[in-house]
Design goal:
Blueprint (H helix, E strand, L loop, with lengths): L20 E2 L6 E4 L9 E2 L6 E2 L4 E4 L8 E2 L4 E10 L5 E9 L17 H10 L12 H5 L10 E6 L8 H8 L1 H14 L4 E7 L3 H10 L6 E6 L8 H9 L14 E5 H13 L5 E7 L8 E6 L4 H7 L7 E4 L6 E2 L13 E5 L20 H5 L6 H9 L3 H6 L10 H5 L6 H14 L3
Helix pairs in contact: 3-5, 4-7, 10-13
């Protein structure tokens, strides 16, 4: 793991100087129950019910789950079966806002006195990782200090995907909340050191965080080179601390806890207001967006179609949740903003079309994919092993370490779909009896 290759990408940070604007109330809100890793919450509502802002509308008893709250007050007009981007199904509720935004009676700042009550508050907030992975944050906090003592908190401010600038705006606009969130996490999780890791293309954010942490001896601002995928968990841990998270282990095994900067900012806001996770700061950009590119605070459940209309989208061929490297394509513009949505990118080309890159040719054994791989894996050998259905070889080559960052496909001069093949190979290996 010493190489940690990565690739240089065009930044396209067109909206870096665009202050966050409140997008406002959409005509309807669509809220799928599956919005995080783990158990899917049970929907508590039925058609014609009335709901209030901040009211829990879905929850599960499972530890690995996070509750879902209504972002609006209004009326339930539909309960439907929803197709998730990964092909699974869940229940979804459609709410028509009444425009009042009346808060539910239980919405108030949580009482926090120790680690247990802090973790409970984080769960009650519905928080999942806001960097895109949607891992329930309270689960991350529930480590056993006697088995995996954590001494370092890393604030992930890399934001290495092109176009996305939401985290950069968080640094610039929510600075005090970031500092307060760091203090809360260090206090209640008993972590002695914090490293705020930011890529060097965010000079203003770096200067501001250094100014705000100047008198905090336990907090360091670390400047990382702009190299994709700098924000990947294993990569940022190594680049920030020199520690390696071994295969099959969690960051906690290396004594590290990683939080996205927007995650830690939200923790502070929730502890002050009690308003759960019902909105997201996201970047609206891409070649199909002809006006109003920028950063917006958007209610979770807002249909993407309303954002596209606002952005003056024309000749849209591709819509992504997230960035062009790891973003998830939308099958319909009526899909909603989710907890994990940090960007909506719309393009007037089909970015998956091999014709745009000159077509696919045979592997030329150049090794570019391996040099680009952040974890020193062998994508060209994954392809061969998958095609021959050699599960033992895939396991030997440590396919499970692949993070699907797409560096191999980006670097391949033959334009081979290596990242896509890796995911097919993972599915094959999961089902193989070895």
């Amino acid at each position: 793991m010493k190489n940690l290759g990565g690739v240089k990408l065009p930044h396209n940070k067109n909206t870096a100087n665009s202050e966050t604007v409140d997008f406002g109330l959409p005509k309807t809100i669509v809220i799928p129950m599956a919005q995080a890793m783990g158990a899917v919450p049970n929907l508590f509502l039925k058609r014609d019910d009335k709901v209030l802002k901040g009211q829990i509308i879905g929850n599960a008893d499972a530890f690995m789950s996070a509750p879902i709250h209504s972002p609006v007050s209004g009326d339930v007009i539909d309960i439907s079966d929803y197709l998730n981007p990964n092909g699974s199904h869940c229940k979804a509720v459609t709410i028509r806002p009444d425009g009042l935004q009346t808060l539910f009676e239980t919405v108030k700042p949580p009482e926090i006195t120790d680690k247990k009550s802090f973790i409970l508050a984080v769960r009650d907030s519905g928080l999942t990782g806001l960097g895109g992975a949607a891992f329930p944050t309270h689960v991350k906090f529930s480590y056993d200090e006697t088995k995996t003592p954590i001494d370092t908190l890393i604030i992930n401010g890399a934001e290495c995907e092109p176009y996305i600038t939401a985290d950069n705006r968080c640094f610039l606009e929510d600075t005090d909340d970031i500092i307060d969130g760091i203090k809360l996490c260090m206090k209640y999780l008993n972590i002695k050191r914090c490293i705020i890791s930011i890529e060097d293309n965010k000079a203003e954010a770096i200067a501001l965080m250094r100014e705000k942490t100047a008198d905090m001896k336990a907090v360091e601002v670390k400047v990382l080179p702009s190299l994709y995928p700098q924000g990947a968990e294993k990569v940022i841990i190594y680049k920030s601390t020199g520690r390696i998270v071994m295969e099959g282990e969690l960051p906690a095994n290396a004594g590290v806890l990683v939080l996205n900067v927007s995650t830690v900012s939200f923790i502070s806001k929730y502890c002050k207001t009690g308003i759960p996770l019902t909105s997201k700061r996201l970047t609206l950009d891409g070649s199909a967006i002809k006006k109003n590119r920028g950063n917006y605070n958007v209610l979770i459940g807002t249909p993407i179609s309303e954002l596209l209309e606002f952005g003056g989208a024309e000749d849209v061929k591709t819509i992504l949740y997230g960035g062009p490297m790891m973003g998830v394509p939308l099958y319909s513009p009526e899909q909603p903003v989710l907890k994990s949505t940090n960007a909506i990118l719309a393009f007037d080309t089909d970015i998956s079309d091999s014709k745009n890159t000159g077509g696919v040719s045979a592997c030329i054994r150049c090794g570019s994919c391996t040099r680009a791989c952040p974890l020193n894996l062998l994508p060209m050998r994954f392809e061969t092993a998958y095609k021959t259905k050699d599960a033992k070889m895939l396991k030997k080559l440590k396919l499970s370490l692949c993070m699907n960052c797409g560096c191999c496909s980006f670097a391949c001069p033959a334009h081979r779909p290596l990242a896509e093949i890796n995911q097919l190979a993972k599915d094959f290996l999961r089902n193989a009896k070895i």
